[in-house]
Amino acid sequence: MNAFTPEVQVAIARTRDEVARLHEELVRYELVVWTGGNISARVPGADLFVIKPSGVSYDDLAPENMILCDLEGSVIPNTPGWERSPSSDTAAHAYVYRNLPEVGGVVHTHSTYATAWAARGEEIPCVITAMADEFGGPIPVGPFAIIGDDSIGRGIVATLEGHRSRAVLMQNHGVFTIGKDAKDAVKAAVMTEDVARTVHLAKQGGPLIPIPQDAIDALFDRYQNVYGQQPAGVTK
Amino acid sequence: MNAFTPEVQVAIARTRDEVARLHEELVRYELVVWTGGNISARVPGADLFVIKPSGVSYDDLAPENMILCDLEGSVIPNTPGWERSPSSDTAAHAYVYRNLPEVGGVVHTHSTYATAWAARGEEIPCVITAMADEFGGPIPVGPFAIIGDDSIGRGIVATLEGHRSRAVLMQNHGVFTIGKDAKDAVKAAVMTEDVARTVHLAKQGGPLIPIPQDAIDALFDRYQNVYGQQPAGVTK
Amino acid sequence: MNAFTPEVQVAIARTRDEVARLHEELVRYELVVWTGGNISARVPGADLFVIKPSGVSYDDLAPENMILCDLEGSVIPNTPGWERSPSSDTAAHAYVYRNLPEVGGVVHTHSTYATAWAARGEEIPCVITAMADEFGGPIPVGPFAIIGDDSIGRGIVATLEGHRSRAVLMQNHGVFTIGKDAKDAVKAAVMTEDVARTVHLAKQGGPLIPIPQDAIDALFDRYQNVYGQQPAGVTK
Amino acid sequence: MNAFTPEVQVAIARTRDEVARLHEELVRYELVVWTGGNISARVPGADLFVIKPSGVSYDDLAPENMILCDLEGSVIPNTPGWERSPSSDTAAHAYVYRNLPEVGGVVHTHSTYATAWAARGEEIPCVITAMADEFGGPIPVGPFAIIGDDSIGRGIVATLEGHRSRAVLMQNHGVFTIGKDAKDAVKAAVMTEDVARTVHLAKQGGPLIPIPQDAIDALFDRYQNVYGQQPAGVTK
């Protein structure tokens, strides 16, 4: 098989499970149709990531047909699923993992409302508190880029580096999100479509009320540091 | 455990069941995504309420992880679920229970169409009879308020006190609804999104026909007093 | 029990089953929320109809809690479900059955897009062939009318009598549809929302292309007489 | 029974299975309501195709009630399902199979957003990369045509012949898609509604950014030749 240590083999197996399972969330939230969209996750403790195969139905995804790649996006031979082609967006995912070491998961969708903003090359303004919480400001637009080489990955990294937002609208294309792990990136994809839809509808009805920058800052800070359950050992 | 009387213990257990179960309605009616939104219910006969934990998946909600609070919003120690943080909107719920004694349930969502109205700070006009039935007039807008202290609670109470509507659109934020019990507040949340959507779509197509005030009054009166099943002992 | 003949008792039982079951279609097609909307069916061979109880959850509908009424809308005592109140729209259904003897079923919803047209008092123009097939022209608007007496029923009958359409948009209110039986009226309610949505969206994007009247006539005639399966004994 | 060779009998049985099953995808993606819409598939190795019966509920579709026709659209007598009428669009499907020998499947829907474009007679511009991938340019509009004779079929063939798009919006009517097999045509129907919705929403918000023609060409070429899994024996 492979020269991976037992620890890395366990990490790979867990990552395969997680990536296969998280794809169900894309279906549940109606972010994808047919075989579109994909999720990847970095294997903790290794220069590897796991990604969806190309053009395979969401009904047929399972841990064993997820595909293991190195950080150049090359499939690791003789591992489960390796006989299939990985997602056609694999080069973009790999570029993100190589250049943003804090990123543990990447998600790509053509979710409807977000892609509508992308077709106009228009960033989503931060006019609802849930968006300030989650993204800390507007969701930015990245460049138009052709699929298949590094150009999408470069556009994602150039747009998101140093930005609070974990989501970018790639012009005329769709959404890429990043996260500390794959679940976090999936959450960003879900919230991107949710705010894209809400702000689209709001804008249809008339002028939007901006949220003052200091309120956006306060909301983002609180949500990143206080919301949800604290890790064990943190006193409330 | 606690110094609660057996009667209060039974009331707490029933309220935990009800609050956990009612969250399923928020999912069914697509009023929430991911871990957003929350429901609370006052414990009948006690200065207590039960609320959803913060940042926990809707798939994982159960009676035993609902959180018991006093009317200051403090978690009651050594009760089921107390090791978790309650909803980050707990202070707002507590403020409502302290100030509106007739309120038995509170619901908060970022449901799409209602939040779109909120992002414009625009009240929903009463142009459909179902809205006159349920809310007796427009759904009003409350102030922009920061999450985490009393300011949201104060905004809800100041807007709804003396108003027929059980729903308020908090500017740039989302919906809070109140009810005689939690189910009633959930119904108000469901109907708020339903009328927010219908009136949004109606307005897109051209001028709306207002409903005369006396007809609104008659519809509201009938629905509050005649609609549905009468309690046992009331002759038809 | 009752003085109904065995034949009528069988017809009542079948009608209860049908009315209870058809309510599931309103949920499936998302035409109703909470306890809104209602279906009734005339009992074949009797001056009776069966209707949904008022304010009861769709999860709790069953043949034995459907309510049997005479054509004045009065509940028949000592029949299953009679201890509950019938739908608050019962008077309107009864008026239709008294005045349109060919009608075997009536459906009422506040389905979203249709109600949006109703809030503007605007008929839905016949610009898609499926609408010509089903309704033979525009879906008309009936008057604003208060719930609870004959005024809704009068508005429905005055608008639909002699009209090809089996659906009417009651101004500021919602949809009433009629049919040769309850299933046919449910189909009309489903198709009303479908065309209300499609034509709403079409109109948002720019001018609509009208369908020539002779083409509407030909489509309506073909659909009413040729579409679907012929009764046994009709040669193809 | 019939004079079909054993090979053709097997091919017919497989085609019946496939056509019955694929109709579930139309329901899953909400492209159809009630009994609307239909799928057909050419029987490989025979001048035959299999199509949905007319006016039958999607819940009741099964391989044995699919209807076998020759390429003139005549039902083959004494085959399973032959006692029912085939889809009222059978003549259009037959015309396509007679005139486009490379087509193995045809799908027809009145899916909402696509039909909205059709009601304006407006082609869907190619402003998102998924549309360039799948259709290689805009989705064109075919003529207004009456149901029941060859005129719809002629309109489909005249519009799609030599066009990259596998989908056509028939004016005031709905969508027809073709594919190398029925699954491919279903995918085209799913993607048509997806891009119709996204581009509709994008256009509501302001001017769209066009995709340069050479980028459309490159995307279409890559997707048709590289995307997805290669047949066995093709080296990656």
Automatic annotation (TrEMBL), chains A, B, C, D:
Keywords: Metal-binding, Zinc. It catalyses: L-ribulose 5-phosphate = D-xylulose 5-phosphate. The keyword Metal-binding applies. Its EC number is 5.1.3.4. One of its GO terms (cellular component) is cytosol. Its cofactor is Zn(2+). InterPro entries: Aldolase_class_II_sugar_metab, Aldolase_II/adducin_N, Aldolase_II/adducin_N_sf. One of its GO terms (molecular function) is metal ion binding. GO terms for biological process: pentose catabolic process. Residues 17-200 form the Class II aldolase/adducin N-terminal domain. Transmembrane segments: none annotated. NCBIfam families: PRK06557.1 (NF005123). Belongs to the aldolase class II family. AraD/FucA subfamily. This is L-ribulose-5-phosphate 4-epimerase. The lineage of its organism: Bacteria, Bacillati, Actinomycetota, Actinomycetes, Micrococcales.
